[in-house]
Amino acid sequence: MPGKLKAKIVAGRHLPVMDRASDLTDAFVEVKFGNTTFKTDVYPKCLNPQWNSEWFKFEVDDEDLQDEPLQITVLDHDTYSANDAIGKVYIDIDPLLCSEAASVISGWFPIYDTIHGIRGEINVLVKVDLFNDLNRFRQSSCGVKFFCTTSIPLCYRAAMVHGFVEELVVNEDPEYQWIDRIRTPRASNEARQRLISLMSGELQRKIGLKVLEMGGNAVVGYLQCFDLEGESGIVVRAIGTACTLDKLSAGANANAYTHPNTAPASNACNSPSKDSKESPLAHGCRSTHNSPVHSTCSAQRLSQNFSVSVPTLIFAGMGSGGSVGKEAGPLKMLLRQQTQTALEQREFPFFTLTCFPPGFLVHVGGVVSARSVKLLDRIHNPDEPETRDAWWEEIRQEIKSHAKALGCHAVVGYSESTSICEEVCILSAAGTAAILNPRYMREGCLDIGSGDHRFDEPSPPSCGFCHIPYDELNMPFPAQLTYCYQCRRQKVPDVLFTTIDLPTEAAVSGKGCLIQARLCRLKKKAQGEVNATSISNLLPFMEYELHTQLMNKLKLRSMNALFGLRIQISIGENMLLGLASATGVYLSALPTPGGIQIAGKASGDLSNEQHVLSIQKRINDAMAKNKEMYHINPPELSEEAAGSPIPEPKQRSRLFRSQSESSDELSELDLSHGKKDAFVLEIDDTDAVEDIHSLLTDAPPPAGFYSCNTEVMPGVYNWTSGLQMFTSVRVLRLSNANLTNQSLNKIFTDMCENLLKSLYFKLRSMIPCCLCHVNFTVAVPEDELIQVAVTAVAMSFDKEPILEKLGDRAVFKGAGENEDQLQFPMELCAESASVAISNLTAKFTGVPEYAGGPSRATSVDYGSFADRCSTWLELIRLKAHTIRRGSVKTSRRTQSLARSVSSSERCSPLPEGRSRSLRSTRSSGGGGGGTAVTVVKMTPLSFLPGTRLIKYLGIINMFFIRETTSLREEGGVSGFLHTFIAEVFAMVRAHVAALGGNAVVSYSMKECVFMENPNKNQAQCLINVSGDAVVFVRDTDQEATPTLIHTSCGGTDGPT
Amino acid sequence: MAVELDVFVGNTTIMDEEVYQLWLDGYTVNDAVKVRMVSEGMEEYEASAEVVMSDTMDQYRTFQMCERLLHNPTKLANQLLFQIPPHRQAMLIERYYTFDDVFVREVLGKKLSKGTKKDLDDVSSKTGITLKSCRRQFDNFKRVFKVVEELKGPLVENIRQNFILSDKLARDYAAIVFFANNRFETGKRKLQYLTFQDFAFCAGQLIKNWTVGAVDNMVEDMDVDLDKEFLQDLKELKILITDKDLLDQHKSLVCTALRGKTKVYTEMETNFKNLSRGLVNIAAKLTNTKDVRDFFIDLVEKFIEPCRSDRWASADMRLYLTHYTNSAHLLDTFKYQVVWDRYMGVIKSCIFKMYPQMSTFSTPLSGIIDQRFVHVKRDFGPLGRLSIFL
């Protein structure tokens, strides 16, 4: 009997009128946990009842405590007929099971009914007394902390990162059980809500057990998804990264991370430059994709009759980790071996984290992804979810082998998702192949105190992560390499795609921007296997096109890297939707991207020629404009310094290397478009015209706005505390039956663009402002419908960017000295940028000659060797499509959880004592049923600017269903969904406030399934949200300015 | 292609004050979009009609969802559905309860009944205020009336606490409730020149001095009903006109005081008995509910109009009333000084307020013309034409 759960029902308010005769309600409450139910007395004829009940005590196993929610039902007593339910509150007890999280749940909860929405509020107190249980065979995993945040939570230190944990549970969907035909919609919805709540509790408990087995105490980057497979059931699955976290005491603060030991890795690999392999193709994008999809045809039948394995875009890569080791210096080899031993004992060296302690990430290879098309079948035995497990296992193996092909031993920023339409399901997994520093994966290697002399070396170059992890002689795919523009010692690709956040140490020029590729493909309606085959045939083409679009748009913005890449493919009955979002940046370590050149095919045609010219001009103008808009101001290197160019057979005639930029300098930056290897777009067919058109029609955000889908916007640092999290949903009905791919693309693109425009307009009062963590999800809910949902946070910042000015000045000054110190400007710029990111400006600004430090010295030494092949590195994306007729389903969209380290320095947690006292004052206030509602901030980011997170209170993971049979009366579909989303927000806020928190970080809406039947005046919607409840305090160490922002008046301000 | 569904929900509820005003004014979404498209600042955001439309619909929906809470403003502060910063809450409430003076003039003193509500389309076409807005304002009056009707304690304070309104607005509502309760006639042509604020001031005076609450502040309806005992006592004042001696004495005291101080002395002297009879008769008749209703029209007919026709300046009128009031204290045989002061204090302030300035009184139709002007001005709104009917 290891736990005693106690609940007390204090009062209700704003109850609905249940008795028409008296305009009052005779309310009482049922409190249920497991199979035990208690009731309060009836509080007659009152809309604001004061029950003030005794403590209801439940004696339960901690296993149940983890699985079951506390269920509170408010009813109206009726003497003659059955009591009417007013609504319910489900309270997840989990946060109370962890000593470091909340100690009591106390507050007003909205009373929720799946038909009527919120109907009043109820004040509840919940406590848990846990008894120690030393049984090592226990089934519970109380005490394991869960975080949605995809980075090390701000007030913790990672003592060890154990690695990937995953689990899934399956069950029948109550909505599809026979009993559903005779029960009310309300009963069916509630059964579903309760089941999913139980399943996610069970899932969390099982994952916790795995973590304990691994010796960890927490799961970071916990991503839980539901797949509503319809007839075949419900799958709840979760992945995460097991860690051992130490709570930071006041003394040991985040500085623990400031001396990462990556020096050996980055110093070791100074292998002499060799002629980099010439890629025969100048335009990498096309080239990498010319690997034919032939394998599709040679579908091999696997043991299970109907499965087809279709590896489509695997490039020639044979490079394995071992072979790379041969080429590298001995230190690197050693590192590799250590890492491998650390990692290879794991089945899947995957990490759901997207942001890492400095030094953790050594190299990044590129994006790896795998998709698989499955046919769903009923889950026959809920206790044996093996089919689903096997499916995911297969995909993960695929990912693992892709990473290996990139010479990487790990995958970071890993996520999984599904898209389901009828009985077809696409499973997707994606991540970023990487090499990690093994220190974090070995026991006892994180003794920060040890006087390792390496720590005295200058910080490792901030460009380390850009360096290629694979063997340049044995590249897994055609790519063009160049020496790193920062350290000049190692090779970097010319373009880098990743699914992670921008590492804090990365040097970036200018600002970033949201880049999206959108695509629609029609497909024939079909059934079963035929359908699955046609979908899997379409997938590689879609990936290819999305990729091309991303690359074009990146070039157009003169940027060379994408972070936070997320590609979503959704299936509908008669179309496939693809949406790729990422944040483009200009990494100083990577070469300046070349221009885009338009080539007409029919060169004889004069009018065509002119057409090409005019398009070329527009593109060049757009690029110049973009450079200015995003403040991309990379220092120009003169040719001499950059080393002799490597002749390239396919270089354009316009690439006159001899052209001296040193004399043109800053005034004519856009010259660079022409002088590098250009990216050629041939207008030889309508597709290309369309590509170019879509390239140029993406409207830039209005002045004062920036947007990104990562945690923070590179180049914007001085956030105020003004923030606004929002969700916006749009559904478009396609009226025209005879749509072509092109017109559909246009419609879809316009829909996304218009949505963004609307957001900018709505949020105009927050200018200057940045939309961060913009997360689009697309779906095809019905034949003719396209649904796009966006969740993001708008954060305003102070205009005068001191840091930016500093950077500009440095560049300017550097330019003046260009002749003798050729690398100087770049170093300066890079330094200042990275300095800015880490908030260490104060340390450096007073020392203008800091560029003379070690990093500059090395850059000068190596600069002359640098060779400057302007190339293209294609990102790697690999995938496989497998059709299999098998069992069940899964439908979930990936949600990218993100985080940032940028504020970690600011986060020095309060001593435990103080946070306690905070709690106690709050809970006494809450118990009294105070009238002021606590302001709860919500953000999809892992931090709140201008504040310190002092406590994580536990994970919020809520699933709601709302249904209506009076759609018109509720304001139509928009009114219905608007109310529902507002209600979901309200319930999240109420739970957080009851835990004693004042914010939700890493918030995400993972599911928003909307179904309507206007003819019957009905609609139904399911929403799943998650996040971490936290307590923050204003960062008083910072200037006073951030505290006075309109949306964020202090927690308990009364009405003015 | 049709946008089937389009919603935006912020964790902090976003509300644009301009759109809120348009919504309160009863504009349809389409009209509101037209107004917004031409309002300044829009070019800056390159907002297309589509974008503005989407935003406007969202905001309208939000307001509609909030409206239920605005009907019970105390709930707004502790509801959980919308996270609205306190100062925004105050703005929402204040604006929701703000009314058009032109509109309130039309219904002031009328019974807040369904019948009156049915006539609102006439009011709407007369005032140029949309029917929707008229209904909101009317319902606000009615709601406030219903809530405070049965509460104890000071009227203004009750309104302020139950509806979280500013002091000014709470006083205006007190006046509306007071007028509606006593059904004062304000709609006659002769009273048209008076604004709502004039009446509100008078109501304040009446509430402060003539209600039950003026003597006992813990009774129900204390500020809404006139003090019956006092009204009864007022009958005694009749002696001032029925007793010939007293009347003459009073007249000579006033005349002595006035002589040489005003250009209209002769007129004052001539009219003294008439005017005095007028004022005292009003007092004496106040026990009849019917006469209470005619209180303001009586003041105008019995006092203000005679003075105006003799071209008294307002300074003359003030001088006259001051001496008229004070002289009564010098009458030996007049025993009702306390009642007299309580009565004349209010009468004086009301008449001071109601006495028209020269310019506005040059025509009895001036009030109506004022309204026409307002109407016309509205017609010149950005739309060129208002959609008055829903």
From TrEMBL, chain B:
GO CC terms in record: nucleus
GO molecular function: fibroblast growth factor binding
A GO BP annotation: platelet aggregation
PANTHER family (alphabetical): ACIDIC FIBROBLAST GROWTH FACTOR INTRACELLULAR BINDING PROTEIN, ACIDIC FIBROBLAST GROWTH FACTOR INTRACELLULAR-BINDING PROTEIN
The name this protein goes by in its record: Fibroblast growth factor (acidic) intracellular binding protein a
Organism: Gadus morhua (Atlantic cod)
Upper taxonomic lineage: Eukaryota, Metazoa, Chordata, Craniata, Vertebrata
Underlying gene: FIBP
